[in-house]
Write a structure and sequence with these properties.
Blueprint (H helix, E strand, L loop, with lengths): L6 H12 L3 E3 L13 E8 L3 H13 L5 E5 L15 H7 L3 E6 L1 H7 L4 H16 L5 E4 L2 H4 L11 E2 L3 H4 L3 E4 L7 H9 L5 E5 L12 H29 L1 H13 L2
Parallel strand pairs: 1-2, 2-3, 2-8, 3-4, 4-5, 5-6, 7-8
Helix pairs in contact: 3-5
């Protein structure tokens, strides 16, 4: 029933798909005919670049390639930070596609007049980070934010295009849970001729776990990173010339 969300279970799921279907990224679809069996493997990185990289490396050992959709507006990571700016290039080096995960709520706050400019700028920046032009996009939280204004853009492959999300089977572990139709497929042990498989790396690890334990671990790691960053700032402040002069004046004035 795939309840452990462990890499052993993930490997079983991939092998189930690979038994009769070709593994594709979204960028592979441009030259792909409609005939034949295949599955598109996709990952939305909403929370943890570290979990994404672990999964990407695991997939590479299996000869599996995915499309990783990265988000510029996550509250959990910053693609332009020293900690995460190399992630897109590393994913590309492992043979995966790097796509843009776009947040329409954020776009609406920035500019209601030209949201397409924001999308293109983010795609260009992500392409610079990965070293490969962005070809594919996927909306963040489509069930929450409503209609996708970029559904019909010609310059990008949209993961929610009906031919990839409705005309073929669509299977997702959203919120770290499987819907009944997905569970029935797994129990049957045979996948559809063509399907899109969306997996969120945050929910998966070497050891079994659930959505609550994974999030708790992520929050703990985030807190540790914040404390380390604060300690690094303190170290700079303790030796900064301006701080030393300021504190010396303050001490002299208090005498």
């Amino acid at each position: 029933m795939l309840n452990d969300f462990s890499y052993d279970e993930y490997k079983w799921l991939l092998n189930l798909g690979l038994a009769r279907n070709k593994n594709l990224r979204f960028c592979d679809l441009q030259g792909e005919s409609d005939s034949g069996r295949y599955f598109i493997l996709r990952h939305d990185i909403d929370f943890s670049p570290e979990a994404a990289l672990r999964m990407a490396e695991f997939e590479a050992t299996l000869g599996v390639r995915s499309t990783y959709f990265l988000l510029f507006s996550s509250n959990f990571y910053n693609l332009l930070s020293e900690d995460h700016c190399l992630l897109p290039r590393r994913l590309a080096e492992l043979g995966h596609e790097v796509g843009l995960h776009y947040d329409l709520k954020c776009y609406d706050l920035i500019s209601r007049e030209k949201p397409s400019d924001i999308l293109q700028n983010q795609a260009d920046t992500l392409g610079q980070l990965s070293g490969v032009r962005v070809q594919s996009i996927a909306m963040h939280n489509p069930s929450v934010y409503g209609a996708d204004i970029f559904q019909n853009l010609k310059q990008f492959i949209n993961a929610y295009d009906p031919k990839y999300a409705k005309e073929i089977a669509y299977i997702s572990d959203s919120c770290g849970a499987w819907r009944d139709d997905a569970a029935a497929l797994f129990q049957k042990g045979e996948m559809p001729p063509r399907f899109q498989l969306l997996i969120h790396p945050i929910f998966w690890d070497n050891k079994p776990g659930d959505r609550w334990s994974r999030m708790s671990e992520l929050v703990g790691n985030q807190m540790s990173m914040i404390h380390k960053s604060a300690e690094a700032a303190h170290a700079i402040w303790n030796h900064h010339a301006g701080v030393l002069q300021h504190d010396a004046r303050k001490q002299a004035a208090s005498r």
